[in-house]
Amino acid sequence: MISPEMHWYFDTNATVWHTIASGFYDSNGWFIDVKFHEKLQIEELLEFFDLRDVKDRILHTLPLGKQRLALLARTIVKNPPLLVLDEPCQGLDSDQTQYFNDVVDELAHYGKTLIYVGHYESQLPQCIDHRIVLEHGEVKAIEDIVLNDKKIKESVIA
């Protein structure tokens, strides 16, 4: 899971490498020796997320977009069957949002199932194929998004 709250309270002394490593242990920082095969996996994720050049930098010193990518890498390090992304682009500018969502779209091509919470249509990745619209805590609509025709089939709940 990624959320702004998790990001705000994450270990302020963690490097990007340690941030990703902490995902193996579901910790808010890095406290355990990482096994050899886990180190290899971290290096692969650093490459995939284009973070290799900043792996030894303190997470909170990086631009916000890079910080969120590191937290996304941390989230997928154990290859979970479901990703929950709760407003992962909050605070990002449009270029950072686009890049982050491009990475999410690529992950979806690898068969990742995700729940993506967002408030703005422009901040959603292209891989979304079902949508639930909430208003004041109530389900307003359930939509199936047809990507081929770029149409939305909607069934509104009264």
Structural notes for this entry:
Helices cover 34% and strands 20% of the residues. With 158 residues, it is of the alpha+beta class. The protein has one domain (4-127): Rossmann fold, CATH 3.40.50.300. The strands form two sheets. It has a three-stranded antiparallel sheet, with no helix packed on it. The protein is globular and about 45 Å long. The two termini are 31 Å apart. Residues 148-155 have low confidence and may be disordered.
- How far is the first residue's CA from the last residue's CA? 31 Å
Number of domains: 1
Helix content: 25-40%
Q: Based on the structure, what is the oligomeric state of the protein chains?
A: single chain
Q: Which structural category fits the helices and strands? A: alpha+beta
Determine the number of helices (DSSP H or I, runs of at least 4 residues).
Answer: 5
pLDDT under 50 segments (min length 5)? 148-155
- Compute the average pLDDT: 86
Strand order of the largest sheet: 3-4-5
CATH class: Alpha Beta
Summarize the structure.
With 158 residues, this protein is of the alpha+beta class.
How do the helices and strands line up, and which of them pair or pack?
Layout: H1 4-8, H2 16-22, H3 36-48, H4 64-76, E1 82-86, H5 94-109, E2 113-117, E3 130-135, E4 138-146, E5 151-156
Parallel strand pairs: 1-2
Antiparallel strand pairs: 3-4, 4-5
Helix pairs in contact: 2-4, 4-5
Keyword list:
158 residues; 5 strands; Rossmann fold; 5 helices; alpha+beta; two-stranded parallel sheet; 34% helix
